[in-house]
Design brief:
Shape: globular
Order of helices and strands: EEHEEHEEHHHEEEEEEHEE
CATH topology of the largest domain: Cyclophilin
Number of strands: 14
Radius of gyration: 20 Å
Length: about 270
């Protein structure tokens, strides 16, 4: 039986923890429980929030007591079928690495160029920072904090890491793609933050107006289980793509597929 730990998240949510590390095998166990819980159609279960290593379960305490929910979850985990593959969209995200907004944001907060810093701490040329980040696919294992703020881990050896800022920024421009440790994330709106700034994408990953068919299911594009492919673009390409996004003409590159758990991940 997979060991789990229950933790309270207020009066209306229960957290089911599968471990204390971030890896693909644990995330697949989270996804397996998420699928099993939804299939069980438990009365009082309102919403689930899968993350790297845990599943948040929002429930109605009028319809189901916590101890009864824990019993249901324990039984589901006991009978859980281990996932070896999961439906996974491949989403292509163009990025203008070392864009002027990122450079100005770093300057305004009294720190050096983030790409230069990442090159220094990883002992590689500037160009290699971009090549390494864009050279692997990234698995989205959590979505939250802000709408469309995701955390994605590299699928394979990226050979690139970066610490968070010692003192978080007061603001970060929307659309910035960023890195902390080996995790890639995204700022959907102007907001504080401490991740290293990689570049800016011209496409929207959060769109409350849902101007594009890619947002037919809701204003948040990233999903747990997505794979991201980051493609370096020039400033001219950025402006062209951004104009197409604003006008609603841009065609998001999203391919349906399946990702299989490698033997090394299990």
């Amino acid at each position: 039986m997979t060991e789990i730990v229950f933790r309270s998240l207020g009066d209306l949510e229960l957290c089911v923890e599968f471990g204390d590390r971030i890896d693909l095998a644990l995330n697949f166990r989270v996804l397996a429980l998420d699928r099993a819980l939804k299939d069980a159609k438990v009365p009082g279960m309102r919403e689930t929030v899968p993350t790297h290593r845990s599943l948040g379960v929002v429930y109605d305490p009028v319809l189901i007591r916590r101890r009864d929910l824990e019993r249901v979850l324990t039984d589901l985990v006991t009978d859980l079928v281990e996932l070896t593959e999961f439906p996974s969209r491949l989403v292509t995200i163009p990025v203008w690495y070392d864009d002027p907004w990122s450079r100005e944001c770093a300057r305004a907060h009294g720190v050096g160029n983030n790409i230069d810093y990442l090159a220094e701490v990883n002992g590689v040329p500037r160009e290699e920072v971009v090549a390494r980040h864009a050279g692997v696919l990234h698995w989205v294992s959590a979505v939250g904090f802000q709408p469309s703020t995701y955390q994605a881990v590299p699928l394979g050896e990226m050979g690139l890491t970066g610490p968070k800022y010692e003192r978080p920024r007061k603001w970060t421009d929307p659309g910035i793609v960023c890195l902390a440790g080996t995790i890639t994330s995204y700022y959907p709106v102007r907001s504080p933050g401490g991740y290293q700034l990689l570049g800016r994408t011209p496409i929207d990953l959060f769109d409350p107006s849902r101007r594009n068919a890619a947002f037919a299911d809701g204003p948040v594009l990233p999903r747990v289980g997505d794979r991201h492919r980051y493609v370096p673009i020039s400033g001219e390409e950025y402006e062209e793509i951004r104009a197409a996004v604003v006008s609603g003409r841009y065609e998001y590159q999203i391919e349906a597929g399946v990702h299989r758990l490698a033997a090394a991940d299990a």
